[in-house]
Amino acid sequence: MSMGPSGAGKSTLLYALSGMDKPTLGEIYFGEEEISKYSNDKLALFRRKHCGFIFQQIHLLDNMSVMDNVMASGLLVHKNRKEVVQRAKELFQQVNLDEKDWRKFSSQLSGGEAQRAGIVRALINNPKIVFADEPTGALNSSYSKAVLDVLTEVNEQGQSIVMVTHDLKSARRGNRILYLRDGVICGECNLGKYKSGDKEHHEKLNAFLAEMGW
Question: Which pLDDT does position 138 carry in this prediction?
Fold first, then answer.
């Protein structure tokens, strides 16, 4: 989880880690591979195979159904259409989107439904890591909780997630918080596994953010 004031470099860090931006200094490794040396074409293949992305604006294609949006991403990596369809259906069930919802166009979805569809698209290729940039920033409190519940569930199943957020409720779901200021990581807080209603967990985060001047 990455936090900090506007302009601190949170999104830049996320884009650099995912290969969407190249650093001007330093090196970025994914496992034992230095991806910061990859060509743009190789980075595109790397992201397609290993990364999933969830943004504040979902960017679903308006002229395609939700299922077709997900399938378009899945078939770029996996050529067995039947397997991709089955995976998509399982993920839609996991995020509580019924068949009537994934047959809709994106303009027919609520904000929370669209964001959950975006999570399915991000997970369809079994990525090793999911990058989430303010995934609840445009949602009301009930939709935000639904999205955070899904992300917490998939994280508990072993999915690695790197999230940028300004939202305290989102930050509470993180296991590890990095605080950025002026492009520099100036603090780190290891919260451990999230448990709903864990007062000590919340107090530890609040104390850390107060120390950082948040």
Answer: 81
Task: Classify 113 as helix, strand or coil.
Answer: helix
Q: What is the mean pLDDT of residues 141-170?
A: 91
Q: What's the predicted TM-score (pTM) here? A: 0.90
d(CA 94, CA 81): 20
Joined together, the tokens standing for residue 125 give 């290729």
CA angle 51, 151, 136 (to 5 degrees): 95
Cβ–Cβ < 8 Å for 161, 123: no
Residues 176/1, Cβ–Cβ less than 8 Å:
yes
Distance CA(80)–CA(77), nearest Å, equals 9
Q: Rounded CA gap, 171 and 191, in Å?
A: 10
DSSP class of residue 179? E
Can you give the residue ranges of every domain in the chain?
7-12+34-165, 174-214
| pLDDT recorded at residue 198 | 85
Instruction: Please list, residue by residue across 9-22, b when 16 or more beta carbons sit within 10 angstroms of its beta carbon and e when fewer do.
Output: bbbbbbbbbbbbbe
Homologous superfamily assigned to 7-12+34-165: P-loop containing nucleotide triphosphate hydrolases (3.40.50.300)
